[in-house]
Amino acid sequence: EHLTAMSSASADAVVREISHAFLQFDTGSKGYLTRHELRAVHLSLIGYPLSLIELDTVIPKSNDTARLDLPQLCEFMAPRLCAHDAEEISRRAFRAFDASHRGFVSLCDLQSVLSKVAPHLPPQTASLIFSQVDTDGDGRVSYKDFHSMMVARPGGRMSAWPAPLPPSLGRRHAMHAGGLL
């Protein structure tokens, strides 16, 4: 219903973006997402992790066979993508990373979040991401820098991270990171 209210070009763009994220995070091209993969897709598309309560609503932890296929993901994510503006997404994501409420994100903050939402990423990935965003090298990412990084993605949609993984980290980690990087 959210997609039908949009122009067909906008709806197509949303579906393409969701489909792209699905393909990035569908480890092994199984045709569905696991709970872990859904959390990573949500972070990639919206900019903050899906809460465990929301996750249990979509893919119940108690149901070992519960999966989310592409049409279900589109149905779940399209309203979320349409309802959030870039500034709000940046604020929420920044608050999620700035757990100590200090007004900046540190490397430790980033490492903590990545260990929860993308535990398969190698440790050096957090350092690489942080070094790309911490442009002045002071060990802190301000909200201004964080927001600039979030909206810097080509095509105008928000990005959760500034750049893709370098080839040296390998395809497997790129698949786990998907749109995170």
From TrEMBL:
CDD domains: EFh
Residues covered by the EF-hand domain: 85-120, 121-156
InterPro entries, sorted: Centrin_CML-like (IPR050145), EF-hand-dom_pair (IPR011992), EF_Hand_1_Ca_BS (IPR018247), EF_hand_dom (IPR002048)
Entry's Gene Ontology molecular function annotations: calcium ion binding
Keyword annotations from UniProtKB, A to Z: Calcium, Repeat
Gene3D superfamilies: EF-hand
PANTHER family: CALCIUM BINDING PROTEIN
Protein name listed in UniProt: EF-hand domain-containing protein
Organism listed in the record: Haptolina ericina
Lineage of source species: Eukaryota, Haptista, Haptophyta, Prymnesiophyceae, Prymnesiales
